Amino acid sequence: MSPTTTTTEVAIVGAGPAGLMLAHLLQRAGIDSIAIDIRDRAAIESTHRAGILEQDSVRLLVESGVSERVLRDGYRHAGIDLAFGGGGHRIDFEALVGASVQLYPQTDVFVDLADARARDGGDVRFGVGDVSVADLTTDRPLLRFTDADGVPNEVGARILVGADGSRSICRHEFPEARRRQFFREYPFAWFGILCEAPPSSEELIYSHSERGFALISQRTESLQRMYSQCDPAEDVADWSDDRIWEELQARVGANGYVLKEGPITSTTVLPFRSFVQEPMRHGNLVLAGDAAHTVPPTGAKGLNLALADVRVLAEELELHLAGDDGALDRYAERALRRVWRAQHFSYWMTTMLHRLPDASDFDVRRQVGELTSIVSSTAGSTYLAEGYTGWPS
Ligand SMILES: Cc1cc2nc3c(=O)[nH]c(=O)nc-3n(C[C@H](O)[C@H](O)[C@H](O)COP(=O)(O)OP(=O)(O)OC[C@H]3O[C@@H](n4cnc5c(N)ncnc54)[C@H](O)[C@@H]3O)c2cc1C
Fold this sequence. Notes:
Blueprint: E1 4-7, E2 10-13, H1 17-28, E3 33-36, H2 41-45, E4 52-53, H3 55-63, H4 69-73, E5 75-77, E6 79-84, E7 87-92, H5 93-97, E8 101-103, H6 106-119, E9 123-125, E10 129-134, E11 142-146, E12 152-156, E13 159-162, E14 180-196, E15 205-207, E16 214-218, E17 223-230, H7 241-253, E18 264-278, E19 281-282, E20 285-287, E21 293-294, H8 302-321, H9 327-353, H10 361-376, H11 378-389
Parallel strand pairs: 1-12, 2-3, 2-13, 3-9, 6-15, 13-20
Antiparallel strand pairs: 4-8, 5-8, 6-7, 10-11, 11-12, 14-17, 14-18, 15-16, 16-17, 18-21, 19-20
The structure holds flavin-adenine dinucleotide.
């Protein structure tokens, strides 16, 4: 079958938060785009991931006309509890840096973005297959795919954007000699559960203990998300609900907390990885979001970085399409500055709070010393609050 051919200004591979937010911002600037995704809407909507939005992410969603629901249905959190050494210590973001974060699940961010695209007549194709990109260093790069009805498509664009997540095909199109990949693997993962229970705490609890890390987070008045540090090879089938609750209660109980329990509706093991690919531009292909970088989830930075990338990318693409030759490289430079700050913050939170499999008693006591320094110093607490709520653009 001969392909259906289309032209657009920007072709976007991946319709997650990065791809859809970019398409939305471009349309507001009068720039046409097409976004495609290998998954259908229902599959993306039911994948539970991030839950904490920095204040600039909230502002972007509201001020660009994507979501007012984020303010109405989200929960404002003005701090977190750091729990260690037998007790909890609140980091008061509001008092320290005059900022807060918003608890609003990524599934809802996606629904708002997809609804905004549908409302504004945006061209988004879900459930496509056979995706490939070509002619990246020419002035007419191509995106090829087979749509959900089995029809082959070829899109000629001025710019291609790889917003295709942590298993990106686009980043592999950068010639090996012209890319660098920076990795860190961690010898632990998170065992995540969703449970039907009332909140155990109004704000997130980051709990350090000799048994390992636990994070107590919320979703709604009746649904909660909790994580405990585990081996990356852990099999969720080995864990009964009773065993899961026993372990979570033991970890937070060491610091004086008691969790409200309820039926567990989902379990998952989430591996940890830090990754950056540089540069973020090759010819007329640019990367955004998880396609270019991933962080371990401890600092709640992944989704926020994806949104920060495309806010900058939309600005620079507008300049590029108007003839500014330096704009795409400037995007990569501006984005990477924030990416590496977030890499450091996520690494720091992760290594301060998790127990390494071969940790000695010295290592665990040293972590408690570090956490004590953070909570007993205005400078230390402010540093954490600034990073968590998000640095100014
Ligand atoms: C289980 C889990 C829990 C997480 N928890 C947190 C958290 O608590 N806090 C936080 O900040 N971050 C968290 N993250 C990270 C956060 O979800 C990501 O950083 C965020 O989704 C990045 O958005 P994105 O649009 O760049 O990528 P994605 O959301 O991954 O979107 C990429 C899209 O591209 C599509 N795609 C992939 N390949 C192709 C292809 N070849 N062609 C077309 N489309 C393609 C995918 O289907 C996907 O819809 C978590 C991630 C996971 C996996």
